[in-house]
From TrEMBL:
Necessary cofactors: heme
GO MF, one annotated term: heme binding
Keywords: Endoplasmic reticulum, Heme, Iron, Membrane, Metal-binding, Microsome, Monooxygenase, Oxidoreductase
SUPFAM superfamilies, alphabetized: Cytochrome P450
Cellular location(s): Endoplasmic reticulum membrane; Microsome membrane
UniProt protein name: Cytochrome P450
Keyword Ribonucleoprotein attributed: no
The organism of origin for this protein: Megalops atlanticus
Gene3D superfamilies assigned: Cytochrome P450
Length: 272
């Protein structure tokens, strides 16, 4: 790349499968990603990732889908305490379990990677699944190993070749295929959690992120409308008794439009 810079300058493009634009120098990179950050906010579309998530989700999606997912995630996680002191107590509880797990090693050499990963993952799991996993949970430890291996494989030469020649590499065996088999196991785990939530959730009392995601889409003005209905009808019914005019039967006829509206009618409001 240094030789290309000397020959072509600070900005040049290559074709390694998809077209790649190369920026050189801290000043130029800062100008692109800080001063013009809105123009570079999208994630690159890598076949090794899009073949898994189909451009869905929060991390590697772009455009309208990403904006909607991000807005929902920020709002929901904020409601569950992210960015507030209320989440601090949950993290402190997990700190206690982490200290206890390391104390159980009694000063002997051990690999802290999965213990720390388990602790950090438990905070996320509490927000998303509404539950934590014990450090001795072999199934969850295996899932953490799968995640670590997928992350490693995404940075390997096999994934790079896959991203350059996806049509060929999809059909060839090799370590890159573990990216998809491991990811499928992780996705199946999440699907199982979603299925469990569908069976026992209370729509009026969401416990976690999944419960909120499964709830029906709420109208942005629903809370305002509920308040208006309650206050208007309460104040009117406290003061008046409503009845149809003498000899007129109430009608349920309606006019069809963007909403279902009653036809014009008259009523009598008698003071209480």
């Amino acid at each position: 790349m240094a030789k290309f810079k000397e020959q072509y300058g600070d900005i040049f493009s290559l074709r390694l499968g998809p077209r790649i634009v190369v920026l050189n120098g801290c000043k130029l990179i800062k100008e692109a990603f800080v001063q013009h950050g809105e123009n570079f906010v999208d994630r690159s579309s890598l076949p090794s990732i899009t073949d898994i998530n189909q451009n869905n989700g929060l991390v590697f999606s772009n455009g309208y889908m990403w904006k909607q997912q991000r807005r929902f995630a920020l709002m929901t996680l904020k409601n569950f305490g992210v960015g507030k002191r209320s989440l601090e107590s949950s993290i402190q509880v997990e700190c206690k379990w982490l200290n206890e797990a390391m104390g159980n090693e009694q000063g002997q050499p051990f690999d802290p990677q999965f213990t720390v990963n388990n602790a950090v993952s438990n905070i996320i799991c509490c927000l998303v699944f509404g539950d934590r996993f014990e450090y001795g949970d072999s199934h969850f430890q295996n899932l953490l190993r799968l995640i670590n291996e997928v992350i490693y494989l995404h940075g390997s030469i096999w994934a790079r070749i896959y991203n350059v020649f996806p049509l060929i590499m999809r059909r060839l065996p090799g370590p890159h295929q573990k990216i998809f088999s491991h990811s499928e196991m992780l996705i199946n785990f999440v699907k199982l959690k979603i299925k469990e939530h569908r069976g026992d959730r209370d729509p009026s009392a969401p416990r976690d992120y999944i419960d909120c995601f499964l709830s029906k889409r709420a109208c942005p003005g629903e809370q305002l409308a509920r308040m208006e209905l309650f206050l208007f009808f309460t104040s009117l019914l406290q003061r008046f008794t409503f009845s149809p005019p003498p000899g007129v039967e109430p009608s349920l006829d309606f006019r069809m439009g963007m909403t279902l509206c009653p036809k014009s009618y008259k009523l009598c409001a008698t003071s209480r």
